[in-house]
Amino acid sequence: MDRQNWQPTSDKHMLEARAALLGQIRRFFHDRQVLEVETPILSAAAGTDLTLDSLLTTLQGNGSEGQTRYLQTSPEFAMKRLLASGSGPIYQLAKSFRNGEAGNKHNPEFTMLEWYRPGYSLTQLMDEVEELASLVLGLGKAERLTYSELFFRYLDIDPLASSLAALKQVARAKLEVSFDSDDSDQWLDLLFSHCIEPHLKAPVFITHYPPSQAALAKLAENEQGQLVALRFELVAHGMELANGYDELTDPEEQRQRFEKDLSVRHSNGLPQYPLDENFIAALAHGLPDCAGVAMGVDRLLMIKTSSNNIREVISFPVDIA
Questions:
Q1: H/E run at residue 279
Q2: Taking the model in full, what pTM does it have?
């Protein structure tokens, strides 16, 4: 008889470490009077991000036969609906799902910490992220650099002004490249993930991303008059830990971005998803000016316990769940 692989990949020590980390996070926000909330994992709509694919299921019973629901890639849309309703500052520890993501740092099901601060600037939110990271990981102060400064430091190119041909040339000179693309962001992501991110062992906040990578962030001009996305990432130990935005509040601009994403997804043969009209309606009602951020809890635990693989910090990875 075949023996089933029923045992977890994390031991009791790791279970205790996770419980302690979650306790630290909850105390951190309790002390700052940020309300813990819970929103649905299933939604009638999904995000349009070109780099993410959703998992879906079909409902049965109670007159809902055949209706498609999507497992959230993050709790962002639902949390912003709470903000628009007057919730004030909120956070959530949520299960999130991203199809096709697997590897040493990825599992299709993972735990995300997400929080929103009405009235906060990106700088204030980075300060708070730094406080939390220092509390749970002992990281200390993080260097703060722009996306362009990092590309100049490690590749001697301007990511905001370089042509597609120039990006391809640098990538092919630095890496063995087995694909071709007319999307500059794919080449920027390749260069960042392979030529820059591995060097970022000490914590660093990266700001002022290309406007094409704004997602749900506002846009503004930098000191050089270049249009940039008002967002940041925290990278430490060679991996992304947090992704924060000065949140876009304009419903029409958001709809245009969603529709553009869906057009590109169609051209690239990617799955099409229904727009979240409830989210757009919440923006139209009035999302307060706010900054928000998502952090990967499993990755925090990897650093906290000196683990090299996400399988070591979750009980049952996707292949044995």
A1: helix 277-286
A2: 0.94
